[in-house]
Every structure is written in structure tokens, then in C-alpha cells.
């Protein structure tokens, strides 16, 4: 059966070690000329939602999204070296995505709150840039609502690889937050929740995760859970 694996990036594939929040702060400075009094709050939200809330909390409400996206892209480029130095690929990630790549019916891409440019910065800075078809992903530059990113990625994958890749239950989101679980359910995908971020396995189950693992370390077990043994 064709499978579309929709990977979250931060705290699922990689640990950004605080660089993401530094990117938001730099983007804020580029937009406003001052340091934010209130830092960004992330927790699985999209860049559009994160920056909009951050601007409002800092007393600013008249910034166009095109300007915000440009500032985020410039900020991501500024912090690429810091991410390469301080970030890390999480245990088991390379082994699992390599194993998935050897199975021809599988397409791997990302569904991430990051704008596409910064998704690429994060993946390439940590050596993961060649593992995914980023042209069919869903990004924070596509929509504010995360479930819409799942739908967009499914549509793009089906358009490129064939309608069979758009069938119900063909796609599975792999992510670390309750928002990933909600997005998968509303976006027409299954979900594998990974307790590698801020949320425990119990919290992810309470949020509706039926398949929950502690990390990506056991490649064989994860292939079984993804129905790809």
C-alpha cells in the first residue's frame, strides 16, 4: 500500500536547542527595530500563528504576512550556523528515514509550522536535506491552521505521485505535540505520536494518540507500527 509519511521537524526529527525562538526574536527585531518584551510561544503552532500572537502581545498589529515571512526567512539564514552548532538529529531518525527510503511505495515529506525556507534551513543544517521530497510538504507559509497543512501535503503528493497517494489513511503524520494529533485527525491522516518533545507519552495518549512511542530508536518496531514491515 502506498504510504505518505508527513514528518514534523522540531522535537520530532531534530532538537533545535532554542534556536527556533531566537529566529522568532530576530524576525521581530527585523520587523520592528526593537527587541521583543514577550518571547514567542510555539508548542506546535504555525509560524504565521506564532508571529501574529507575538506581535500582538508586544503591542503591534499592523504587519503584513508577506513582510513577516520575509523577516522569518532572513532570520533563519542568520541563525543557520547556530543551528548547525547547537542542534542535533534525534536518536533513531537517520536509521528510520533511511529504512523508509528503501521502500518504493513510501513518500517522505514534512508537515511543519516552519515556513518552507526555514524548514529547509533546519534540515540542511543538520544533514537531513536530501531525505525528503520537500516540494510536496505542508508549511507554515501555506496556512495558519496546522490541519490545513496536512491536507495541502496530501493534495500535493497525490498530484505528483498519483491519486492513490491521496486515498484516506494513506498518509500518517509523525509528530510530538497534541496539535500534530489534532491536525492529523482533521486533515485526513493517521498519526504516530513521539514523546520526544515537551509532552509525555501519557499526555499524547490523552490528546487522542492511538500510536504513541517514546522515541524513534527502534526502527523495526516503528516499521511495524507504520505497517511497512
UniProtKB/TrEMBL annotation:
Signal peptide feature range: none
A matching Pfam family: HAD
Molecular function as annotated in GO: phosphoglycolate phosphatase activity
One BP annotation, GO: DNA repair
This protein's name: Hydrolase
Provenance organism: Microlunatus phosphovorus (strain ATCC 700054 / DSM 10555 / JCM 9379 / NBRC 101784 / NCIMB 13414 / VKM Ac-1990 / NM-1)
Lineage: Bacteria, Bacillati, Actinomycetota, Actinomycetes, Propionibacteriales
Amino acid at each position: 500500500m502506498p504510504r505518505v509519511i508527513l514528518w514534523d521537524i522540531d522535537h520530532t526529527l531534530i532538537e533545535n536547542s532554542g534556536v527556533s525562538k531566537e529566529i522568532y526574536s530576530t524576525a521581530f527585531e527585523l520587523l520592528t527595530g526593537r527587541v521583543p518584551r514577550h518571547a514567542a510561544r510555539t508548542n506546535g503552532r504555525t509560524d504565521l500563528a506564532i508571529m501574529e500572537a507575538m506581535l500582538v502581545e508586544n503591542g503591534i498589529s499592523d504587519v503584513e504576512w508577506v513582510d513577516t515571512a520575509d523577516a522569518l526567512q532572513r532570520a533563519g539564514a542568520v541563525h543557520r550556523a547556530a543551528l548547525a552548532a547547537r542542534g542535533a538529529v534525534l536518536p533513531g531518525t537517520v536509521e528510520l528515514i533511511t529504512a523508509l527510503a528503501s521502500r518504493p511505495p513510501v513518500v517522505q515529506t514534512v508537515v511543519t509550522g516552519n515556513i518552507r525556507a526555514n524548514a529547509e534551513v533546519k534540515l540542511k543544517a543538520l544533514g537531513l536535506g536530501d531525505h525528503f521530497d520537500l516540494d510536496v510538504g505542508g508549511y507554515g507559509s501555506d496556512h495558519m491552521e496546522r490541519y490545513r497543512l496536512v491536507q495541502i501535503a496530501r493534495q500535493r503528493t497525490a498530484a505528483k505521485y498519483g491519486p492513490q497517494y491521496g486515498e484516506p489513511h494513506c498518509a500518517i503524520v509523525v509528530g510530538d505535540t497534541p496539535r500534530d494529533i489534532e491536525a492529523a485527525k482533521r486533515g485526513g491522516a493517521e498519526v504516530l505520536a513521539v514523546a520526544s518533545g515537551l509532552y509525555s507519552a501519557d499526555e499524547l495518549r490523552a490528546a487522542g494518540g492511538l500510536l504513541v512511542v517514546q522515541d524513534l530508536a527502534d526502527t523495526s518496531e516503528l516499521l511495524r507500527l507504520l505497517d511497512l514491515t
